[in-house]
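pasting for the record
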Amino acid sequence: MPNGFEQVSLVRLLPDNASSMETAWIEARLLPTKLASISIDDTAPQHVHAWSGFNAKSTECTPLKSIIGYCPVIDASPTKDDVVYTIMDLSRRITEKIGQRYTILVLDQAIYCKAFAISMHKEDEFKDMILRLGGFHILLAFLAVIGKRYAGSGIEDILVESGVFAEGSVSAIMSGKAYNRAIRAHKLMFEALHRLLDDTMRTEEDNTDNVVIKETAEQVYTAFKENNDDVLNSLISLTHL
């Protein structure tokens, strides 16, 4: 490779069973009836949780308990350069006191820009500081990207004509401004499109993978319907469906 660079292999960031469990969730949500087989006025019972509830119910990850402490209050605007520098210096000294090398500082968008400029100006002083933009602002940026990518595709009309959102709310959703509404809208669209894709892609003669996924989906559906955590936990432990 030129300039001494070497090519590195890419690895999957998601577990092998992530897409399989997602497929099983979609299949389980389709039971006992298909979307195309009921009218809009029908009230088909739904025992399987929605995307957020399903992942919260089925995850094996238990977050560690956080220890929260409070720093001294600074009676000044948080966007002033002096205040931002004081926060960075205080965080660095706290990190050194507890014997930790790297300081991870999470800031909102307005303060992040100033902190980044300060870290570049005082590179030696903050060489071990890792600045991170707050997760909320990152998610807003991703939502705006999704809205821009699929603008004019008909998603706006679907969300309005289905009666889920008002027309004014949809513009905020597509621009990434209304966080809660945007998350709900994209999750609903994700499930609805996969339901239609499922009916379209199914063949009369299912292959082995489709049969296994269908059987697993039925088990997931039954586990949620009967509130059987033992069956659900056994399904989570599968690497491949």
